[in-house]
Structures are given as C-alpha cells and as structure tokens.
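Input sequence (359 aa), recorded before submission:
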Amino acid sequence: MRVLGTLDRYVLRQWLTTFLLATLGIPAVSILIRFADFYGRLADKGVPTRDIFLGFGLLYPSQLALLFPAGVLFATVFTLNAMGRHSELTAAKAGGISFYRLIAPMLVLATLAVPANFALQEVAAVSTARQRVLHKEKADPNDQVRYMFAFQEENGWSWAAKELRRGEGLLRTVLLESPPDTLGRHWAIAADSARWSDSLARWTLIGGAAHLVSDSGTTTLAFREMRVPVLVQPPGALMDAWSRAEEMRAPELAAYLERLRRSGTRPGMLAVDLPLKYAIPVACLVIALFGAPLAVTTPRAGAALGLAIALGTTLIYLTGTQIMKAVGGRELVDPTVAAWAMNGVFLAVAVVLMARVRS
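Predicted structure, token format:
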C-alpha cells in the first residue's frame, strides 16, 4: 500500500475538516459568550469601544491554545464515528486494513499538533498580556515604577537601586558590590543612574565611581559611563508584580520562577504552570490515542455519542488538570508530577483501550 493511499487521503480530509471547524469554532463561541458577559462592565469602566473589541480579539489565541487538544479529540472521534455509521470501518477491515493502520494518519496529524499548540501558547502569552492592559485589568507595563529594591545574582554580585522606571528603561541611584576574590578584594560601585539598551541587552552605568576595596586600602576610579557584565536583567524582569503564567512565555516563566526561588518566595501554582506549558500540547496526541478506540466501540452509534465522548473527555481532562494544579500548588505532590498526571492517566487508559480494539 502506498504511504498516502486513497483511504489515507479520505481520512486526512475528514479529520482536517472537523479539526479546523472545532478548533477555530469552539474558541470563537467562547469569546462571543465572554464578550456578551463583560462588554457592559468594560464600558462602565471607561474602556474605549475600540479597545474592548481589540482586547477580545487578542484573547482568541489563548482560548485557541487551551482548546487545541479538544479540537484534535473532536476530529478523531467524529471522523471514526462517521466512518462507523456508514460502514466504512467494516469495509476497511474487509479490505485487510487494520484499525491501527487506519488511524495512523490521524496520529501523525495529532503529533504535528503538539509543537503547533506549544507555539500558539507562546503567541497567546504576548496577546493575553496586551489584552489585560487594554481592558484595564492591569496597569500598562510602561507605566510601572518600583522603588527601593535589591537584587542578588547567582555569581554572588548584589546590587540595589532607589528607583526603576520600566517604560524609560531607567535606574536611579545604583549601588553594586562584588563577592570577595581569593585575595579578599571586592568591588563597590556607585552610579547616579543606569540606562537599559535593548541592542546591548544590558545596563550602562552613568556618572559614578568604582572602588576596589582591599586590606591595603581603596582604589577609586571615576567614570562617566561603564558597563558591568552583571547588570543584564531587563527592566521587566526587575518588577516585583506577581505575574500570571498565561502572560509569560515558557522561558520567561522559568526565569520568573528562578527569581522567586532566589528571593525565598513560594511560587504556589506557578510551579505547576511551567510544566503544564509542555504537558497540555502533548495532550493533543494522548487524547487522540484515548478517543480513537472509544469512537469505534459502538460503530453504528449516532453523532450524539461522538459529541458526548468528545465533550465528556474534554471536561474530565480540564477538570482533572485544575484539581492537580491546585494539589501541586500546595506542594502535596511534585509540581511536575501534578502537571503531567492527567496525561499519564489518559495514556494508561488509552493503552488498555487500544489493546482491546478488534483490529
């Protein structure tokens, strides 16, 4: 049999049609419901009409990313359910095509959906953050100011600043101190201000002096501008506002959790959110494996059964994920285990169901 025979092309066409309708349509309905519920409240808050509509548009990628696995499940279940009702499954088996060979194209597409869903999550993080600003759910990051704070790097350097203006990329009254070297010497640096450069990805100290302190005395070097390799944290990373996981991409969330760890702050459910950014895309493949054998248990059942299977599985997965997220956030189980628990449960059941399918 050719790699893409007539039956393969037929299955792929049916699967992709259902997948696109479900994946694009369900989030759109969710956004419309949310729009109907919140439009009046947002208008009462003084949000301009243009920002209301644009904000809901920016919310679409996050809903799309969340329901992406559900779209894969709907496509798998409805494709096989329709083939069962029209005796196409029976005809395929009679032609010597096993169930596993039949669903192979679907599983390939479900596998490709994994990186696509992850990439969509990263885009959704940026759009969600902007949506919250437009709907006045949070302050514009460019308007954020932080006063009197200190920061310690992993290499032992510590520094403090009197004021940070995120939008301007400006630090005022900056003090830095290095750890002692093998001879007991250390640097103490004071600057009037510091400017952030996106092109250099670091801060430039402006107007100050560097003091090399040792047992034999202190050597002072005045400077107009100086770059210190330790000052590489961007302005957004230095804000102390508690951020939401859905507003951060995976690398940003990992860096944020590391800063919380170094400051001694317990991350709570944020510790589960990081592995969830990888677990949820993988669910595209897991629940496809789970839904395929379920869809052929009663091959002549109506579309209502396929809908019930898809909705029920989606509800169980999302509810179970939220429960495990709360459990992991309380550190009752390891956050990584909590994030991947539902994938593990569905995969185990899928293996059992696959083994029982009459191929």
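Checked by second reader. Residues 6-44 form the longest helix (39 residues).
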